[in-house]
Amino acid sequence: MKERILIIDDEPNIAWLFREIFGASYEVLSAETGREGLDAAMHYDVDLIMLDLRLPDANGLDILKDLIARGCLCPIVIMTAYGEVKTAVKAMKTGAHDYITKPFDTEELKFLVESALKYSRLSMEVTRLRHELEDKYHVKNIVTVSPKMMELFSVIERISASDVPVLIQGESGTGKEIIAKSIHYGSPRKNKPFVPINCAALPENLLESELFGYEQGAFSGAHKRKPGKFELANGGTIFLDEVGELPLSMQPKILRVLEEKEIDRLGGTHRVPVDFRVVSASNKNLPGEVLKGAFRQDLYFRIAVIPITVPPLRERKEDIPVLAKHFLREYAVEQKKPVPELDDEAISTLLSYPWPGNVRELKNVMQQLSLLCDGKIIRKKDLPVFFYDPQFRLIENRTGDTGASTTDGVGLKELKDQAWEEIERHEIQEALNLFDNNRTRAAEYLGISRRTLQTKIKKYGL
User: Fold this and answer.
1) What would the pLDDT profile of 305-317 be if each residue is shown by its tens digit?
2) Kind and range of the H or E element at 252?
């Protein structure tokens, strides 16, 4: 369907000119009075309005205000005589997209109309994507049948409308960022930015400049001003992921920003006010970290006004088959393949596995199966080897097996630990190779913090 341009002007030759220039590519509608223009704008789905400042029944500025008040989202361009430029500028401050003076320069008019329509398309796409995000992260659309998760979603719906700080606790892979996005997109701030920052992924010497930004010349290489994450989140939500990894030296600075809602850019001479909601997440026991002196108590109380905990997958096993089928369907659609089914034995095997990597691990396994299984049915034998081969079932014991027996004088636990270390070393090497030794991306891929990855690289001599 052709895009529509609405001309609101009492001069018939103006509408004729637009039809001559744009009629082949666009549908051109016209109205000779302000009232007719308002009715046409509300009745038709228009993509651009060209509005004259002087109309027989109204002032163009009043019509502009009325269109905006009625929720008109398309760009409105003011048409004006040369002597009315000041009024046109005032119209732009009111909400007009641009203005053009009469008589028109044809090339200038073509350029302005094309750029305004391009802006209209981009605005519509942003609106569509924003609605998709709201739907995707609405708690009612998150896949679960678990009573524990239903109870959690009930809490989320109650707290989303407020600006209260939320701390999301849970193991790696449980979906803490999805919960954070659900809170944001269910809040009055949903049309503003959601800005995540992984506190564990950034080196300590870069953390301050990333969070607070810097002025031109603040340090060598600072060629222009750069806003920090808190500024980028202005009006929206900042998500402090892995907040337990914040260095102690940074914690009082974060606390001050949370309390005063002002930031100091590196090299700046004045404070910058910021308006944001903070949502944090951690896979650590932060109260325990406070007792150990690794996390400030005052910062903990500031970010944990509402603490919520996402249960691990092993504590909501009823979600395993539902999520597995959801991921298989998702990947099948992506690959344009029939959706495979899990047989009963395969489902029983999935239910008996402890899922130390939680939902992230389940999703990865389903992606692997969707790529490697050619049949319509996924059986137990199709699952990765550690699901059904006892010698690889050591992963179960990462959650706390302390039993030991002896085999040739070596404890079973020691054998398992050695085997696990070899697997872990191999996985880390593969991740580093995959991302060309980019440790930040490798850590995200493995589901661990950058500091943890660095420790393990040193441990295994990689």
Assistant:
1) 999 999 999 999 9
2) helix 251-260
30 shares its domain with 71: yes
Structure tokens that stand for 116 in this block: 């305004």
Same domain, 117 and 56: yes
Please count the other Cβ atoms lying within 10 Å of the Cβ belonging to residue 131: 12
Asked if 158 and 295 sit in the same domain, the reply is: yes
Give the CATH number for residue 300: 3.40.50.300
The CATH number of whichever domain residue 43 belongs to comes to 3.40.50.2300
35-75 residue pLDDT tens: 999 999 999 989 999 999 989 999 999 999 999 999 898 99
Among 311, 343, 371, residue at a domain's last position: 311
Q: How many CB atoms lie within 10 A of CB 220?
A: 6
**Do 217 and 267 meet the contact criterion of CB atoms below 8 Å apart?**
yes
Residue 385: partners with Cβ closer than 8 Å, 6 or more residues away: 392
pTM as predicted: 0.65
Q: Which of 160-174, 217-231, 385-399 has the highest mean pLDDT?
A: 160-174
Same domain, 190 and 234: yes
Q: Which domain holds residue 156?
A: 141-311
pLDDT in tens, 79-104: 988 667 788 888 999 999 999 998 89
Q: How far apart are CA 462 and CA 442, in angstroms?
A: 13
Task: Note whether 281 and 338 are same-domain residues.
Answer: no
CB 92 within 8 A of CB 54: no
Q: Spell out the alpha helix ranges (H) of 284-379.
A: 286-292, 297-303, 319-335, 344-352, 358-372
**Does an H or E element contain 194, and which?**
strand 194-198
